[in-house]
Amino acid sequence: MYIKDEPALIHVHIPKNAGKSVHAALLEKYGATSIKIKKKHTSLNSARCCHMDEEDWWRAFKFTVVRNPWDRAVSQWTYSLMTLRQLRGHRLIRDMIPVNEHQPFWKVKQDRQAMVDLMLRESFGWWMMDFNQRPGVRWFHYRLKNKKHNLINVPQSMWLTTDGKLVTDKIYRFEDLGELERDLGLSLDVINPSPREGHYRDYYNTKTRKWVAKVYAEDIDRFAYTF
Hints:
Number of helices: 10
Radius of gyration: 19 Å
Mean pLDDT: 81
Low-confidence stretches: none
Helix content: 40-55%
């Protein structure tokens, strides 16, 4: 999250929605954030409750970027693969893999490596509908509204609502970042892209398409997205 006093701005960084590009452009134009928040992915609800007073909250222009849920899920998948390949064997990756800890160390290590190999080998559908639904998975967890959530199971609306109501002043679309650049006078560079082959629709079958439609129903309805 980027918060600035002058001009009064709050940018909500929803994962895999060009957040790093927007944040970098804001830093270049306006300098460092006025309020340092440890977590870069912080909801508006948390910012209001824990980091800002009411006067600054109401004065600030609150904005974010949303993305087609089907496209976003594929981006998270390809980003996960890229991360696994780059950090394979790293403690940060190992700690996200659920295994039975009540067994010899060598067996835990063996099971974790087997799971990493499986994640690299299996399909997008398996990762989304099987792996990410397993108890103990800590793959890209975020704490929102005092609960831990796995990113793949969290509608984007959760970063933007209080008591079910949107509290943003402007919602831009990933599909038209030019509007954001024009409104705020920013120039966005592509940062942290998730490499993929083909169109996001190519990754889906009927089952996975319906699963995303169910999980992200709130976003699809609120932001009028279609497959």
